[in-house]
Design brief:
By secondary structure, the protein is of the alpha+beta class. The protein has a six-stranded antiparallel beta sheet with strand order 1-2-3-4-6-5. It is 30% helix and 27% strand. It has helices spanning 9-13, 65-68, 71-85, 118-124, 129-148, and strands at residues 27-28, 32-40, 44-51, 56-63, 95-100, 106-111, 115-117, 162-164. Mean pLDDT is 85; it is low at 1-17. A hairpin with a 5-residue loop joins strand 5 (95-100) and strand 6. The protein is globular and about 50 Å long.
């Protein structure tokens, strides 16, 4: 519907550890050092970074170059950042900054979660059915809260639900 390619050239040419990634080592907004790519999706790439003044780890979601040239997609990306930043729920990632790279790609900065996607966590921890249901219950509570705040997650899937190292989604 939005004409997003299923596989973009940046997906094909750069792996998460690609030293040739143009953002690795860059400083965004004079304060966020981009360290490595940790994920990617249909709209953007996600990097781990650090706020260089306070030494805090952050996650940085950067809109793909090809989509950054489409005003309607940039507007939707900005709205995603605004909407998510005002939810304020313990099980929903906090977004606290927004900007543009020197090449014009929009990005937002959010708290970094050291964890695993829901399905991978459940498998690696060998969770039994009641534990999986309890985890899913917390996810549903967070999504329900977002809905009450007027925010609908348009890409809900196990990869987009992270469980931190303490077992909290």
């Amino acid at each position: 519907v939005d004409a997003t390619r299923l596989v973009t050239s940046s997906q094909m040419s750069a792996s998460p550890l690609d030293p040739d990634d143009p953002l690795i080592g860059r400083v965004l907004a004079g304060k966020y050092v981009v360290e490595r790519r940790i994920g990617e999706g249909g709209m953007g790439l996600v990097y781990e970074g650090v706020h260089r003044d306070i030494d805090k780890r952050v996650a940085i979601k950067v809109l793909r170059d090809d989509l950054s040239r489409r005003p309607e997609v940039v507007a939707r990306f900005r709205q995603e950042a605004k909407s998510a930043s005002r939810i304020g729920h313990e099980h929903i990632v906090d977004i606290f900054d927004f900007g543009e790279t020197t090449r014009g790609a929009s990005y937002f900065v959010m708290e970094f979660l050291d964890g695993l996607p829901l399905d991978r966590y459940a498998e690696e921890e060998r969770l039994d059915r009641p534990a999986r249901v309890a985890l899913f219950d917390r996810l549903c509570a967070a999504v329900s809260y977002a809905h009450r705040c007027g925010v609908v997650h348009r890409d809900l899937k196990p990869d987009n639900g992270l469980v931190d190292r303490t077992g909290e989604p």
